[in-house]
Write a structure and sequence with these properties.
Elements (H helix, E strand, L loop, with lengths): L3 E7 L3 H17 L2 E9 L9 H9 L1 H22 L3 E8 L2 H11 L4 E3 L16 H6 L19 H5 L1 H32 L10 H16 L3 H4 L1 H9 L13 H10 L4 H14 L2 H26 L2 E2 L5 E2 L2 H11 L5 H36 L4 H16 L2 H30 L4 H14 L6 H17 L5 H6 L7 H8 L1 H21 L29 H9 L5 H32 L3 H20 L3 H42 L8
Parallel strand pairs: 1-2, 1-4, 2-3
Antiparallel strand pairs: 5-6
Length: about 650
């Protein structure tokens, strides 16, 4: 009998472990099967580095290979060998997809097995899009993640053929959909996330940061002047239950926060600090503080121009202030901008606010209990989400006002405990943040790299200027539009300044980032693209490893947090998408139910499939919302200033008083 061969891609994390476990089971079923375990350290020279710098990187290659063999490959080989399998471990530098293909061809492998993880499949992990890219090699098509449909299978393997064929077809369908979407929408995704010439700084991030700076100056640093008043409003000091609206200030805030607090705070910050170093935290905080003014502007307008209906319900958001506000100022194209914004919002809600979240939730659950079909997770989440959103914004708010504080407090308390235990390093950590912000401390891209990563993470995390939060805040019970603008100031502060900063501090203090004992500077990975980590982890795994230095059980808490974050994000974005939907097709219970059913259907799709290109397109639509929204805000900000001056003048003279029940 000819020996069969399976190539297994390892990544040093849970996904690689699951891939190895799956391949081992298949090899045992086949009987005469060898495993080729492959771990690839991505490496390629960069044009912006000198030949001397590239030579220095070459000298570290053997050291990295040796470290990878000892920490990742040797334990994996031993584990598989102890199971009675024939195993060879291969560790190389280079392009992951190319090397996986080369090894498979050299050994005549029948399949390549790689793990399926979150963060857009494998996008934020070392493997990048290797499954899709390797699949483009004609000789390997049909072999990646296949469940061995070759001859020589034993009876046990043959009995699994129906499920195997089904899985194979599902993977093929995923890839076909991805290919169609990538081919037809790639230009749009590339346009939205395109970098400024000569940099790796996306223009959309600059668009958001510049707008936040303009609003900060125009409204006289409103985020500082009104911060104390924002807390008083959230406490309900000025809330009249007879005012029009559906939810309290606190409920509106938690609903909006549930749409932004999530993976960006856990995985995104780890990516930012890993690439830009602790200095990225400084620029992240600065961008978060500036973004508070953007939230103030859009949420004030959201309440001012909302529709209030006889049954007590309301509809508000950018599409309403674009039409009504532009008409009030005698400006054209308000209706056109509103339609475009609504289309982008629906697309963003179904993808980034839905499918991606379901995909992440399934990945976390599978990481705890083991692999199982994603549609099961999807059906469970769809049922839970529908049970909440069928009751409208009031039902959503009742859930978010409990889930968001619980998640936030749990996460911050865990971070604070680690910081208290490591209190002697806090001063050093802040020193690293400030020094790294202006010197780069030798991290990837230096000062510019730290700035770019900090701004990107803040912009992608709090969504200030995107316009989504204005939809949630528009539902508040108030007759003063400025009150909700002031409350919304707290959103970027909590999301970015508090939670993201806590994550960055824990990562910095934990010691998971490798430093040179001689110089104290961070050591870059072989590719020179990010800081080397102790176990080679990145993204959510890096955050998990950092917290695990204080609590060995924290990865389980983190998994629960990610699941809750995903759930709360889905219910919030369902409301954003619904309001955009009803703006386009009209109000009505039947029309609302239709959208809610569609939304829940996409939860199942997102959990069951790995549609990276679809989700990328959806993400692009979310940030395309910012292009339309901020354009409108520039034209309407004089109205906000008039409202702001009137409100604070009346507050100062005592005309506006605290509400007494």
């Amino acid at each position: 009998m000819t020996t069969s061969t399976i190539v297994v891609g390892l990544d040093g994390g849970e996904a690689g472990a699951r891939a190895l476990a799956f391949a081992s089971k298949q090899a045992q079923l086949i009987g005469d099967c060898a495993l080729k375990l492959v771990y690839v350290i991505e490496w390629s020279p960069f044009s912006f580095q000198t030949p001397e710098e590239n030579d220095q990187r070459h000298k570290r290659r053997e050291e990295e290979l040796s470290l990878a063999r000892a920490r990742i490959m040797d334990p994996a080989v031993k584990s598989a060998t102890d199971s009675g399998l024939t195993v060879e471990g291969i560790v190389k530098h280079g392009d992951v997809a190319d090397i996986l293909n080369d090894v498979a061809k050299k050994h005549g492998a029948q399949q390549i097995v790689v793990g399926r993880v979150g963060l857009r499949g494998l996008k934020e992990r070392m493997f990048g899009r290797c499954r899709q890219r390797a699949g483009h090699d004609h000789s390997m098509k049909g072999r990646i993640m296949n469940k061995f449909l070759t001859t020589g299978l034993g009876a046990a393997a043959a009995s699994a053929l129906p499920a195997i064929a089904s899985a194979q077809e599902a993977v093929g369908l995923d890839q076909r959909i991805n290919d169609i979407f990538a081919g037809s929408t790639g230009w749009f995704v590339n346009l939205i996330f395109m970098s400024l010439p000569g940099t790796n700084f996306p223009w959309i991030v600059l668009w958001l940061v510049v707008a936040a700076t303009v609003f900060t100056l125009y409204f006289g640093f409103i985020q500082i002047k009104a911060f104390g008043h924002a807390i008083a409003l959230v406490k309900g000091d000025y809330s009249d239950p007879e005012d029009a609206g559906e939810v309290s200030h606190f409920q509106a805030l938690t609903t909006a926060l549930s749409g932004t607090v999530g993976l960006g705070n856990i995985a995104g910050v780890a990516v930012a600090v890993g690439i830009g170093g602790p200095g990225a935290t400084f620029w992240m905080i600065l961008a978060g503080l500036l973004g508070m003014a953007s939230k103030f502007t859009e949420c004030t307008l959201g309440v001012k121009y909302r529709n209030e209906y006889a049954d007590g319900t309301v509809s508000g958001g950018p599409m309403y202030y674009m039409t009504k506000g532009f008409k009030e100022r005698g400006l054209p194209l308000g209706g056109f901008l509103a339609i475009v914004f609504s289309i982008f919002t629906i697309g963003g809600a179904l993808g980034g606010g839905n499918m991606f979240q379901a995909n992440q939730a399934h990945a976390q659950i599978a990481g705890i209990v083991g692999d199982f079909p994603g549609w099961i997770t999807g059906v469970i989440f769809a049922a839970m989400v529908f049970a909440v959103i069928v009751g409208g914004i009031k039902s959503i708010a009742r859930v978010t006002e409990k889930v968001v504080p619980f998640m936030g407090v749990l996460y911050v308390v865990a971070a604070l405990i680690i910081l208290i235990v490591e209190y002697d390093k806090i001063g050093w950590a802040f020193g690293q943040i400030f020094e790294g912000a202006f010197s780069g401390l030798g991290v990837a891209g230096g000062l510019v790299g730290a700035l770019i990563q900090g701004f990107k993470r803040a912009a992608f995390s709090n969504e200030a200027g995107v316009g989504s939060a204005a939809i949630a805040h528009s539902a508040v019970r108030t007759k003063e539009p400025v009150t909700e603008g002031v409350v919304s100031l707290l959103e970027p502060f909590i999301d970015t300044v508090v939670i993201c900063t806590m994550t960055a501090l824990v990562i910095t203090i934990s010691g998971v980032l490798v430093t040179d004992p001689a110089t104290g500077q961070f050591i870059l990975n072989e590719a020179g693209t990010s800081i080397m980590t102790v176990d080679g982890s990145s993204g959510v795994q890096l955050t998990s490893a950092a917290f695990a230095t204080g609590f060995s059980w924290f990865p389980y808490v983190l998994a629960v947090a990610v699941i809750l974050f995903a759930f709360s994000t889905m219910i919030s974005w369902s409301y954003y998408g619904l309001k955009a939907w009803t703006y386009l097709v009209g109000e009505g219970k039947t029309k609302e139910i239709v959208f809610k059913v569609i939304f829940c259907f996409f939860i199942i799709v997102g959990a069951a499939a790995n549609l990276g290109a679809v989700i990328d397109f959806s993400d692009a639509m979310i940030f395309a919302m910012a292009v339309v929204n901020i354009t409108a805000l520039y034209f309407l900000m004089p109205i906000v200033k008039r409202e702001m001056n009137s409100y604070f003048r009346r507050l100062k003279t005592g005309e506006l008083k605290k509400f007494v029940d």
